Amino acid sequence: MVVKKPRIVIIGAGMAGLTAANKLYTATASKDLFELCVVEGGSRIGGRINTSEFGGDRIEMGATWIHGIGGSPIHKIAQEIHSLRSDQPWECMDGNTDEAITIAEGGFHLHPSIVDPITKLFNNLMEYSQGKLNEATAKGELESYHKLAALAAKVASNRSGNNNLSIGSFLRQGLETYQISKEQEEVKGCGEWSRKLLEEGIFGMHENNQRTYTSADDLLTLDYSAESEYRMFPGEEITIAKGYLSIIESLASVLPPGLIQLGRKVTRIEWQLDERKGVENGCCSSKPVKLHFCDGSVMSADHVIVTVSLGVLKSAIRDDSGMFCPPLPSSKTEAISRLGFGVVNKLFMQLSPKHGGGKHEYQHEHVNEDSDKGFPFLQMVFHSPQSGTRHKKIPWWMRRTATLFPIYNNSSVLLSWFVGEEALALESLKDEEIINGVSSTVSCFLQHSQWQKGSSSHRLCNGNANSEERSQENEVKFSKVLKSKWGTDPLFLGSYSYVAVGSSGDDLDAMAEPLPKDSSCQPSASSPLQILFAGEATHRTHYSTTHGAYFSGLREANRLLQHYHCVGIYNN
Protein backbone atom coordinates (compact mmCIF):
# COMPACT_ATOMS: atom_id res chain seq x y z
CA MET A 1 0.00 0.00 0.00
CA VAL A 2 1.36 3.40 -1.03
CA VAL A 3 1.10 6.01 1.72
CA LYS A 4 0.37 9.45 0.35
CA LYS A 5 2.74 12.18 1.40
CA PRO A 6 1.28 14.93 3.61
CA ARG A 7 0.49 18.04 1.57
CA ILE A 8 1.44 21.39 3.10
CA VAL A 9 0.11 24.53 1.44
CA ILE A 10 1.44 27.94 2.43
CA ILE A 11 -0.80 30.92 1.67
CA GLY A 12 1.33 33.96 0.87
CA ALA A 13 4.81 34.36 -0.64
CA GLY A 14 6.03 37.07 1.70
CA MET A 15 8.76 36.84 4.34
CA ALA A 16 6.85 34.48 6.66
CA GLY A 17 5.57 32.20 3.92
CA LEU A 18 8.85 31.83 2.06
CA THR A 19 10.81 31.34 5.29
CA ALA A 20 8.46 28.49 6.22
CA ALA A 21 8.74 27.00 2.72
CA ASN A 22 12.52 27.32 2.74
CA LYS A 23 12.79 25.55 6.11
CA LEU A 24 10.35 22.74 5.25
CA TYR A 25 11.97 22.08 1.89
CA THR A 26 15.60 22.20 2.98
CA ALA A 27 14.92 20.08 6.09
CA THR A 28 13.18 17.25 4.21
CA ALA A 29 14.01 17.54 0.49
CA SER A 30 16.47 14.65 0.57
CA LYS A 31 13.79 12.38 2.03
CA ASP A 32 10.94 13.70 -0.15
CA LEU A 33 8.52 13.51 2.79
CA PHE A 34 6.14 16.36 2.03
CA GLU A 35 4.22 17.64 -0.94
CA LEU A 36 4.86 21.38 -0.55
CA CYS A 37 3.17 24.29 -2.31
CA VAL A 38 3.11 28.09 -1.89
CA VAL A 39 0.08 29.93 -3.29
CA GLU A 40 0.31 33.70 -3.75
CA GLY A 41 -2.66 35.88 -4.66
CA GLY A 42 -0.55 38.57 -6.32
CA SER A 43 1.66 38.65 -9.37
CA ARG A 44 4.96 38.81 -7.48
CA ILE A 45 6.70 37.36 -4.43
CA GLY A 46 7.69 39.47 -1.44
CA GLY A 47 4.41 40.53 0.15
CA ARG A 48 4.98 43.77 2.01
CA ILE A 49 8.56 43.74 0.72
CA ASN A 50 8.61 45.45 -2.67
CA THR A 51 11.89 46.81 -4.02
CA SER A 52 11.47 49.17 -6.98
CA GLU A 53 13.21 52.01 -8.85
CA PHE A 54 12.57 55.73 -9.04
CA GLY A 55 14.69 58.41 -10.67
CA GLY A 56 17.37 55.81 -11.41
CA ASP A 57 17.68 54.89 -7.72
CA ARG A 58 16.77 51.63 -6.00
CA ILE A 59 13.99 52.25 -3.48
CA GLU A 60 11.74 50.31 -1.13
CA MET A 61 7.97 50.70 -1.46
CA GLY A 62 7.42 48.60 1.65
CA ALA A 63 9.76 47.21 4.33
CA THR A 64 12.88 49.38 4.44
CA TRP A 65 15.02 48.83 7.52
CA ILE A 66 17.01 46.10 9.20
CA HIS A 67 16.09 47.05 12.76
CA GLY A 68 19.40 46.42 14.53
CA ILE A 69 22.17 44.30 13.07
CA GLY A 70 23.18 42.45 16.24
CA GLY A 71 21.64 39.00 16.00
CA SER A 72 19.22 39.85 13.18
CA PRO A 73 18.59 36.90 10.84
CA ILE A 74 17.83 39.38 8.04
CA HIS A 75 21.23 41.02 8.46
CA LYS A 76 22.90 37.60 8.49
CA ILE A 77 21.27 36.63 5.19
CA ALA A 78 22.12 40.02 3.67
CA GLN A 79 25.76 39.51 4.60
CA GLU A 80 25.84 35.95 3.24
CA ILE A 81 24.44 36.97 -0.16
CA HIS A 82 26.52 40.18 -0.31
CA SER A 83 23.49 42.48 -0.46
CA LEU A 84 24.85 45.25 1.76
CA ARG A 85 26.86 46.93 -1.01
CA SER A 86 25.78 48.11 -4.43
CA ASP A 87 27.12 50.15 -7.34
CA GLN A 88 23.62 51.46 -8.07
CA PRO A 89 22.44 54.35 -5.85
CA TRP A 90 19.92 53.15 -3.28
CA GLU A 91 17.75 54.37 -0.45
CA CYS A 92 20.60 54.20 2.05
CA MET A 93 19.30 56.95 4.37
CA ASP A 94 22.80 58.21 5.11
CA GLY A 95 21.59 61.71 5.85
CA ASN A 96 22.68 62.61 9.36
CA THR A 97 19.69 63.52 11.54
CA ASP A 98 22.15 65.33 13.81
CA GLU A 99 22.54 67.81 10.96
CA ALA A 100 18.80 68.14 10.36
CA ILE A 101 17.29 71.58 10.14
CA THR A 102 14.10 72.10 12.10
CA ILE A 103 11.75 74.76 10.78
CA ALA A 104 8.45 75.92 12.19
CA GLU A 105 5.54 76.69 9.90
CA GLY A 106 6.07 80.06 8.26
CA GLY A 107 9.78 79.52 7.65
CA PHE A 108 11.05 80.08 11.20
CA HIS A 109 14.38 78.30 11.70
CA LEU A 110 14.66 76.79 15.17
CA HIS A 111 17.98 76.76 16.96
CA PRO A 112 19.12 73.47 18.56
CA SER A 113 18.82 75.14 21.97
CA ILE A 114 15.05 75.13 21.42
CA VAL A 115 14.77 71.75 19.69
CA ASP A 116 17.23 69.55 21.56
CA PRO A 117 15.69 69.68 25.07
CA ILE A 118 12.29 68.58 23.70
CA THR A 119 13.92 65.87 21.60
CA LYS A 120 15.77 64.60 24.66
CA LEU A 121 12.55 64.71 26.69
CA PHE A 122 10.62 62.73 24.09
CA ASN A 123 13.35 60.11 23.69
CA ASN A 124 13.68 59.59 27.44
CA LEU A 125 9.92 59.26 27.86
CA MET A 126 9.87 56.57 25.17
CA GLU A 127 12.84 54.79 26.77
CA TYR A 128 11.00 54.82 30.08
CA SER A 129 7.89 53.30 28.49
CA GLN A 130 10.09 50.62 26.88
CA GLY A 131 11.70 49.74 30.20
CA LYS A 132 15.12 51.02 29.14
CA LEU A 133 15.17 53.98 31.52
CA ASN A 134 14.84 52.60 35.04
CA GLU A 135 16.15 53.40 38.51
CA ALA A 136 19.24 51.24 37.96
CA THR A 137 20.27 53.01 34.74
CA ALA A 138 19.05 56.51 35.54
CA LYS A 139 22.16 58.26 36.82
CA GLY A 140 23.02 61.94 36.73
CA GLU A 141 20.83 63.92 34.33
CA LEU A 142 18.83 60.80 33.47
CA GLU A 143 17.65 60.56 37.06
CA SER A 144 15.56 63.70 36.67
CA TYR A 145 14.06 62.34 33.43
CA HIS A 146 13.27 59.08 35.21
CA LYS A 147 11.45 60.90 38.01
CA LEU A 148 9.55 63.04 35.51
CA ALA A 149 8.52 60.01 33.43
CA ALA A 150 7.49 58.04 36.53
CA LEU A 151 5.31 60.92 37.68
CA ALA A 152 3.80 61.31 34.22
CA ALA A 153 3.01 57.59 34.05
CA LYS A 154 1.36 57.70 37.46
CA VAL A 155 -0.78 60.76 36.69
CA ALA A 156 -1.76 59.53 33.21
CA SER A 157 -2.57 56.08 34.59
CA ASN A 158 -4.84 57.54 37.26
CA ARG A 159 -6.65 59.59 34.66
CA SER A 160 -7.21 56.80 32.16
CA GLY A 161 -7.41 53.73 34.36
CA ASN A 162 -4.52 51.33 34.91
CA ASN A 163 -5.59 48.94 32.17
CA ASN A 164 -6.21 51.58 29.52
CA LEU A 165 -3.09 53.73 29.61
CA SER A 166 -1.94 54.73 26.15
CA ILE A 167 1.45 55.88 24.91
CA GLY A 168 -0.25 59.06 23.69
CA SER A 169 -1.67 60.07 27.08
CA PHE A 170 1.62 59.19 28.82
CA LEU A 171 3.66 61.31 26.39
CA ARG A 172 1.36 64.32 26.67
CA GLN A 173 1.40 64.09 30.46
CA GLY A 174 5.20 63.95 30.27
CA LEU A 175 5.31 67.18 28.24
CA GLU A 176 2.86 68.88 30.59
CA THR A 177 4.92 67.83 33.62
CA TYR A 178 8.10 69.09 31.94
CA GLN A 179 6.60 72.47 31.08
CA ILE A 180 5.28 72.97 34.61
CA SER A 181 8.74 72.23 36.02
CA LYS A 182 10.57 74.65 33.68
CA GLU A 183 10.55 78.40 33.56
CA GLN A 184 9.32 79.55 30.17
CA GLU A 185 11.87 81.91 28.63
CA GLU A 186 10.24 83.47 25.58
CA VAL A 187 11.88 83.43 22.15
CA LYS A 188 11.99 86.37 19.78
CA GLY A 189 11.62 86.57 16.03
CA CYS A 190 9.21 83.64 15.70
CA GLY A 191 6.07 85.56 14.84
CA GLU A 192 3.03 83.96 16.46
CA TRP A 193 5.11 81.13 17.90
CA SER A 194 5.61 81.34 21.68
CA ARG A 195 8.13 79.02 23.36
CA LYS A 196 5.28 76.92 24.76
CA LEU A 197 3.73 76.52 21.32
CA LEU A 198 7.12 75.71 19.79
CA GLU A 199 7.77 73.04 22.43
CA GLU A 200 4.35 71.52 21.78
CA GLY A 201 4.94 71.64 18.03
CA ILE A 202 8.39 70.02 18.29
CA PHE A 203 6.96 67.37 20.60
CA GLY A 204 4.14 66.78 18.09
CA MET A 205 6.73 66.33 15.34
CA HIS A 206 8.32 63.49 17.33
CA GLU A 207 4.88 62.01 18.01
CA ASN A 208 4.29 61.92 14.25
CA ASN A 209 7.56 60.07 13.79
CA GLN A 210 6.41 57.59 16.44
CA ARG A 211 3.17 57.08 14.51
CA THR A 212 5.30 56.05 11.53
CA TYR A 213 7.31 53.57 13.62
CA THR A 214 4.20 51.95 15.07
CA SER A 215 1.59 52.45 12.30
CA ALA A 216 -0.86 53.79 14.92
CA ASP A 217 -2.89 56.66 13.45
CA ASP A 218 -3.38 58.07 16.95
CA LEU A 219 -0.94 57.36 19.77
CA LEU A 220 -3.91 57.46 22.16
CA THR A 221 -4.78 54.03 20.71
CA LEU A 222 -1.27 52.58 21.30
CA ASP A 223 -1.07 50.46 24.45
CA TYR A 224 1.44 51.60 27.07
CA SER A 225 2.01 48.27 28.84
CA ALA A 226 2.90 46.36 25.68
CA GLU A 227 5.67 48.81 24.79
CA SER A 228 8.04 47.23 27.30
CA GLU A 229 7.54 43.78 25.72
CA TYR A 230 8.65 44.88 22.27
CA ARG A 231 12.24 43.90 21.51
CA MET A 232 14.81 45.34 19.12
CA PHE A 233 18.18 43.96 18.13
CA PRO A 234 21.23 45.96 19.23
CA GLY A 235 23.38 47.88 16.80
CA GLU A 236 22.65 50.31 14.01
CA GLU A 237 19.59 50.28 11.79
CA ILE A 238 20.47 49.99 8.11
CA THR A 239 18.89 49.52 4.70
CA ILE A 240 19.83 46.85 2.16
CA ALA A 241 21.91 48.13 -0.75
CA LYS A 242 20.74 45.52 -3.26
CA GLY A 243 17.17 45.78 -2.04
CA TYR A 244 15.05 43.94 0.53
CA LEU A 245 13.79 41.78 -2.32
CA SER A 246 17.24 40.17 -2.49
CA ILE A 247 16.48 38.52 0.88
CA ILE A 248 13.18 37.18 -0.45
CA GLU A 249 14.81 35.93 -3.65
CA SER A 250 17.49 34.18 -1.61
CA LEU A 251 14.87 32.32 0.46
CA ALA A 252 12.95 31.35 -2.68
CA SER A 253 16.03 30.33 -4.68
CA VAL A 254 16.24 26.87 -3.09
CA LEU A 255 12.66 25.98 -4.02
CA PRO A 256 12.12 24.02 -7.24
CA PRO A 257 10.31 25.69 -10.18
CA GLY A 258 6.53 25.53 -9.89
CA LEU A 259 6.46 25.22 -6.11
CA ILE A 260 5.40 28.88 -5.87
CA GLN A 261 2.15 29.55 -7.74
CA LEU A 262 1.38 33.23 -8.46
CA GLY A 263 -2.07 34.67 -9.12
CA ARG A 264 -3.72 32.09 -6.86
CA LYS A 265 -5.93 34.07 -4.50
CA VAL A 266 -7.63 31.98 -1.81
CA THR A 267 -11.26 32.93 -1.18
CA ARG A 268 -12.31 30.22 1.27
CA ILE A 269 -10.62 27.81 3.67
CA GLU A 270 -12.66 24.79 4.78
CA TRP A 271 -11.32 22.89 7.75
CA GLN A 272 -12.74 20.32 10.16
CA LEU A 273 -13.50 20.60 13.82
CA ASP A 274 -14.39 16.90 13.66
CA GLU A 275 -12.79 14.56 11.16
CA ARG A 276 -16.03 12.61 10.70
CA LYS A 277 -17.96 15.70 9.67
CA GLY A 278 -16.03 15.94 6.39
CA VAL A 279 -17.03 12.35 5.54
CA GLU A 280 -20.69 12.91 6.42
CA ASN A 281 -20.81 15.95 4.15
CA GLY A 282 -19.55 13.91 1.26
CA CYS A 283 -15.93 15.00 1.37
CA CYS A 284 -14.14 12.75 -1.10
CA SER A 285 -10.66 13.58 0.13
CA SER A 286 -8.93 12.21 3.20
CA LYS A 287 -7.14 15.53 3.52
CA PRO A 288 -8.98 17.69 6.08
CA VAL A 289 -8.50 21.14 4.54
CA LYS A 290 -9.91 22.41 1.25
CA LEU A 291 -8.80 25.68 -0.32
CA HIS A 292 -11.10 27.46 -2.76
CA PHE A 293 -9.52 29.91 -5.22
CA CYS A 294 -10.92 32.92 -7.03
CA ASP A 295 -10.85 31.04 -10.36
CA GLY A 296 -13.14 28.35 -8.94
CA SER A 297 -10.47 25.70 -8.51
CA VAL A 298 -10.08 23.71 -5.30
CA MET A 299 -7.02 22.22 -3.59
CA SER A 300 -6.97 19.82 -0.65
CA ALA A 301 -4.26 19.80 2.03
CA ASP A 302 -3.27 18.20 5.29
CA HIS A 303 -1.88 21.45 6.64
CA VAL A 304 -2.21 25.08 5.61
CA ILE A 305 0.05 27.86 6.89
CA VAL A 306 -1.87 31.15 6.63
CA THR A 307 0.45 34.15 6.33
CA VAL A 308 -2.02 36.80 5.12
CA SER A 309 -1.86 40.19 6.86
CA LEU A 310 -3.79 41.09 9.98
CA GLY A 311 -5.62 43.62 7.78
CA VAL A 312 -6.97 40.83 5.57
CA LEU A 313 -8.02 38.80 8.62
CA LYS A 314 -9.76 41.85 10.12
CA SER A 315 -11.65 42.38 6.88
CA ALA A 316 -12.65 38.72 6.75
CA ILE A 317 -14.24 38.67 10.21
CA ARG A 318 -15.68 42.20 9.92
CA ASP A 319 -17.43 41.51 6.63
CA ASP A 320 -18.35 37.94 7.60
CA SER A 321 -16.95 36.88 4.23
CA GLY A 322 -16.91 33.20 5.08
CA MET A 323 -13.17 33.00 4.45
CA PHE A 324 -12.98 30.31 7.13
CA CYS A 325 -15.53 27.51 7.34
CA PRO A 326 -16.29 26.72 10.07
CA PRO A 327 -15.60 30.24 11.40
CA LEU A 328 -12.53 30.87 13.49
CA PRO A 329 -13.03 30.35 17.24
CA SER A 330 -13.80 33.38 19.37
CA SER A 331 -10.31 33.33 20.95
CA LYS A 332 -8.89 33.98 17.48
CA THR A 333 -11.46 36.49 16.22
CA GLU A 334 -11.35 38.53 19.42
CA ALA A 335 -7.56 38.78 19.19
CA ILE A 336 -7.83 39.82 15.53
CA SER A 337 -10.37 42.51 16.45
CA ARG A 338 -8.46 43.93 19.42
CA LEU A 339 -5.01 44.20 17.84
CA GLY A 340 -4.19 47.31 15.85
CA PHE A 341 -3.22 47.36 12.18
CA GLY A 342 -2.29 50.67 10.60
CA VAL A 343 -1.50 52.16 7.22
CA VAL A 344 1.94 53.63 6.52
CA ASN A 345 2.75 54.90 3.04
CA LYS A 346 5.93 56.28 1.52
CA LEU A 347 6.00 59.17 -0.94
CA PHE A 348 9.01 59.60 -3.22
CA MET A 349 9.44 62.91 -5.05
CA GLN A 350 11.88 63.88 -7.80
CA LEU A 351 13.12 67.46 -7.53
CA SER A 352 12.86 69.40 -10.77
CA PRO A 353 16.21 70.45 -12.36
CA LYS A 354 15.89 73.99 -10.98
CA HIS A 355 16.15 72.54 -7.48
CA GLY A 356 18.67 69.78 -8.02
CA GLY A 357 16.48 67.36 -9.93
CA GLY A 358 18.74 66.94 -12.95
CA LYS A 359 20.12 63.49 -13.66
CA HIS A 360 21.82 62.85 -10.31
CA GLU A 361 23.15 66.40 -10.14
CA TYR A 362 24.13 65.78 -6.51
CA GLN A 363 24.58 62.02 -6.66
CA HIS A 364 27.45 61.33 -4.26
CA GLU A 365 29.18 64.39 -5.78
CA HIS A 366 30.74 67.41 -4.18
CA VAL A 367 28.78 70.50 -5.15
CA ASN A 368 30.23 73.97 -5.77
CA GLU A 369 30.45 75.54 -2.36
CA ASP A 370 28.87 78.76 -3.60
CA SER A 371 25.76 76.93 -4.81
CA ASP A 372 23.04 74.90 -3.11
CA LYS A 373 24.32 72.00 -1.02
CA GLY A 374 21.40 69.75 -1.90
CA PHE A 375 18.05 69.46 -0.20
CA PRO A 376 18.36 69.40 3.61
CA PHE A 377 17.15 66.79 6.08
CA LEU A 378 14.04 68.80 6.94
CA GLN A 379 12.08 68.43 10.18
CA MET A 380 8.75 70.26 10.06
CA VAL A 381 6.94 71.79 13.02
CA PHE A 382 3.32 72.58 12.19
CA HIS A 383 0.80 74.80 13.93
CA SER A 384 -1.83 72.97 15.96
CA PRO A 385 -5.24 72.35 14.36
CA GLN A 386 -6.70 75.05 16.62
CA SER A 387 -4.27 77.76 15.48
CA GLY A 388 -5.60 80.66 13.45
CA THR A 389 -2.19 81.33 11.88
CA ARG A 390 -1.94 78.14 9.84
CA HIS A 391 -0.71 78.60 6.27
CA LYS A 392 -3.80 78.18 4.07
CA LYS A 393 -1.90 76.62 1.15
CA ILE A 394 -0.66 73.66 3.19
CA PRO A 395 -3.10 70.77 2.63
CA TRP A 396 -4.46 68.94 5.66
CA TRP A 397 -2.85 65.63 4.63
CA MET A 398 0.64 67.16 4.99
CA ARG A 399 0.16 68.44 8.52
CA ARG A 400 1.13 65.31 10.42
CA THR A 401 4.16 64.54 8.27
CA ALA A 402 7.29 65.06 10.35
CA THR A 403 10.15 64.92 7.86
CA LEU A 404 11.19 65.34 4.24
CA PHE A 405 14.69 64.35 3.20
CA PRO A 406 16.87 62.96 0.38
CA ILE A 407 17.09 59.17 0.22
CA TYR A 408 20.88 59.57 0.35
CA ASN A 409 23.10 62.62 0.82
CA ASN A 410 22.50 65.15 -1.98
CA SER A 411 20.08 62.89 -3.87
CA SER A 412 17.46 64.58 -6.03
CA VAL A 413 14.89 62.03 -4.80
CA LEU A 414 13.12 63.02 -1.58
CA LEU A 415 11.11 60.84 0.78
CA SER A 416 8.31 61.53 3.21
CA TRP A 417 6.20 59.15 5.33
CA PHE A 418 2.42 59.24 5.86
CA VAL A 419 0.37 57.40 8.46
CA GLY A 420 -3.28 56.62 9.06
CA GLU A 421 -5.93 58.93 7.67
CA GLU A 422 -3.36 60.99 5.76
CA ALA A 423 -1.79 57.85 4.27
CA LEU A 424 -5.17 56.68 2.99
CA ALA A 425 -5.92 60.13 1.57
CA LEU A 426 -2.59 60.11 -0.26
CA GLU A 427 -3.56 56.91 -2.07
CA SER A 428 -6.54 58.57 -3.74
CA LEU A 429 -4.81 61.82 -4.74
CA LYS A 430 -3.64 62.45 -8.30
CA ASP A 431 0.07 63.06 -8.84
CA GLU A 432 -0.57 66.72 -9.73
CA GLU A 433 -2.44 67.28 -6.47
CA ILE A 434 0.41 65.73 -4.51
CA ILE A 435 3.07 67.78 -6.31
CA ASN A 436 1.15 71.02 -5.72
CA GLY A 437 0.45 70.21 -2.06
CA VAL A 438 4.01 69.20 -1.20
CA SER A 439 5.47 72.14 -3.18
CA SER A 440 3.30 74.62 -1.27
CA THR A 441 4.24 73.04 2.05
CA VAL A 442 7.99 72.93 1.39
CA SER A 443 8.02 76.47 0.01
CA CYS A 444 6.31 77.71 3.16
CA PHE A 445 8.96 76.08 5.31
CA LEU A 446 12.00 76.85 3.19
CA GLN A 447 11.13 80.40 2.12
CA HIS A 448 13.96 81.75 4.29
CA SER A 449 16.17 78.68 4.28
CA GLN A 450 19.85 78.89 3.43
CA TRP A 451 19.11 76.01 1.08
CA GLN A 452 17.33 78.63 -1.04
CA LYS A 453 19.72 80.94 -2.85
CA GLY A 454 19.96 84.44 -1.49
CA SER A 455 19.36 83.67 2.16
CA SER A 456 22.16 84.30 4.59
CA SER A 457 20.32 84.66 7.89
CA HIS A 458 21.85 83.05 10.97
CA ARG A 459 19.25 84.32 13.44
CA LEU A 460 17.98 82.07 16.22
CA CYS A 461 14.44 82.11 14.85
CA ASN A 462 13.84 83.79 11.52
CA GLY A 463 11.02 84.01 8.99
CA ASN A 464 7.83 85.76 8.00
CA ALA A 465 4.60 83.85 7.62
CA ASN A 466 3.11 86.60 5.47
CA SER A 467 5.88 86.65 2.90
CA GLU A 468 3.64 85.35 0.07
CA GLU A 469 5.61 87.02 -2.73
CA ARG A 470 8.91 85.54 -1.61
CA SER A 471 7.29 82.15 -1.01
CA GLN A 472 6.06 82.03 -4.60
CA GLU A 473 9.42 83.21 -5.92
CA ASN A 474 11.25 80.36 -4.13
CA GLU A 475 8.63 77.67 -4.65
CA VAL A 476 10.18 74.20 -4.69
CA LYS A 477 9.14 72.20 -7.75
CA PHE A 478 8.91 68.46 -8.29
CA SER A 479 8.88 66.71 -11.66
CA LYS A 480 7.29 63.39 -10.62
CA VAL A 481 6.17 61.35 -7.61
CA LEU A 482 5.74 57.71 -6.65
CA LYS A 483 3.65 56.50 -3.70
CA SER A 484 2.85 53.20 -2.03
CA LYS A 485 -0.78 52.14 -1.62
CA TRP A 486 -0.81 49.56 1.16
CA GLY A 487 -4.14 50.64 2.64
CA THR A 488 -6.31 49.93 -0.39
CA ASP A 489 -4.38 46.94 -1.77
CA PRO A 490 -6.87 44.06 -1.18
CA LEU A 491 -4.01 41.63 -0.55
CA PHE A 492 -2.79 43.63 2.48
CA LEU A 493 -5.29 46.33 3.59
CA GLY A 494 -2.61 48.04 5.66
CA SER A 495 1.04 47.94 6.61
CA TYR A 496 1.87 46.39 9.98
CA SER A 497 0.45 45.62 13.40
CA TYR A 498 0.61 47.27 16.81
CA VAL A 499 -0.78 46.46 20.24
CA ALA A 500 -3.81 48.71 20.66
CA VAL A 501 -5.31 49.87 23.94
CA GLY A 502 -7.53 47.01 25.12
CA SER A 503 -5.24 44.45 23.53
CA SER A 504 -2.07 42.83 24.85
CA GLY A 505 0.78 40.50 24.00
CA ASP A 506 -1.59 37.63 24.84
CA ASP A 507 -3.52 38.48 21.67
CA LEU A 508 -0.35 38.12 19.60
CA ASP A 509 0.13 34.70 21.16
CA ALA A 510 -3.49 33.82 20.37
CA MET A 511 -2.85 34.80 16.75
CA ALA A 512 -0.11 32.16 16.59
CA GLU A 513 -2.28 29.30 17.93
CA PRO A 514 -2.90 26.56 15.32
CA LEU A 515 -6.30 25.02 14.66
CA PRO A 516 -7.60 22.69 15.91
CA LYS A 517 -5.95 23.44 19.22
CA ASP A 518 -4.95 19.86 20.06
CA SER A 519 -1.61 19.53 18.27
CA SER A 520 -0.11 16.83 20.46
CA CYS A 521 1.11 13.46 19.23
CA GLN A 522 -1.79 11.73 20.96
CA PRO A 523 -4.65 10.37 18.83
CA SER A 524 -7.36 12.95 18.33
CA ALA A 525 -10.87 12.97 16.90
CA SER A 526 -9.70 15.84 14.73
CA SER A 527 -6.79 15.97 12.29
CA PRO A 528 -4.13 18.02 14.07
CA LEU A 529 -2.52 21.22 12.83
CA GLN A 530 -4.91 21.81 9.95
CA ILE A 531 -4.46 25.59 9.95
CA LEU A 532 -1.33 27.29 11.22
CA PHE A 533 -0.72 31.03 11.35
CA ALA A 534 2.46 33.00 10.63
CA GLY A 535 3.32 36.61 9.90
CA GLU A 536 4.58 39.62 11.84
CA ALA A 537 1.26 39.96 13.72
CA THR A 538 1.78 36.52 15.30
CA HIS A 539 5.03 37.34 17.10
CA ARG A 540 4.74 38.67 20.64
CA THR A 541 8.01 40.59 20.86
CA HIS A 542 8.96 41.31 17.23
CA TYR A 543 5.60 42.20 15.68
CA SER A 544 5.60 44.80 12.88
CA THR A 545 9.02 43.72 11.57
CA THR A 546 10.41 41.56 8.78
CA HIS A 547 12.49 39.58 11.28
CA GLY A 548 9.31 38.97 13.29
CA ALA A 549 7.73 37.54 10.14
CA TYR A 550 10.88 35.47 9.54
CA PHE A 551 10.82 34.04 13.07
CA SER A 552 7.11 33.21 12.74
CA GLY A 553 7.70 31.31 9.50
CA LEU A 554 10.45 29.27 11.17
CA ARG A 555 8.19 28.64 14.16
CA GLU A 556 5.38 27.12 12.09
CA ALA A 557 7.74 25.09 9.89
CA ASN A 558 9.37 23.68 13.01
CA ARG A 559 5.94 22.97 14.51
CA LEU A 560 5.13 20.72 11.55
CA LEU A 561 8.57 19.12 11.53
CA GLN A 562 8.24 18.37 15.23
CA HIS A 563 4.76 16.94 14.67
CA TYR A 564 5.99 14.49 12.02
CA HIS A 565 9.01 13.63 14.13
CA CYS A 566 6.52 12.74 16.88
CA VAL A 567 4.39 10.51 14.68
CA GLY A 568 7.44 8.80 13.26
CA ILE A 569 7.31 10.01 9.65
CA TYR A 570 10.16 12.49 9.97
CA ASN A 571 13.31 11.44 11.77
CA ASN A 572 16.73 13.06 11.60
Explain what you see:
- This protein is of the alpha/beta class.
- The strands form five sheets. A seven-stranded mixed beta sheet has the order 6-5-15-16-17-14-18, sandwiched between helices.
- The protein starts with 6 loop residues before the first strand and ends in a 6-residue tail after the last helix.
- It has 15 helices and 20 strands.
- Among the domains are: 203 residues, FAD/NAD(P)-binding domain, CATH 3.50.50.60; 116 residues, no CATH class.
- About 6% of the residues have low confidence.
- It comes from Vigna radiata var. radiata (Mung bean).
- InterPro entries: Amino_oxidase (IPR002937), FAD/NAD-bd_sf (IPR036188), Flavin_monoamine_oxidase (IPR050281).
- Belongs to the flavin monoamine oxidase family.
- Its cofactor is FAD.
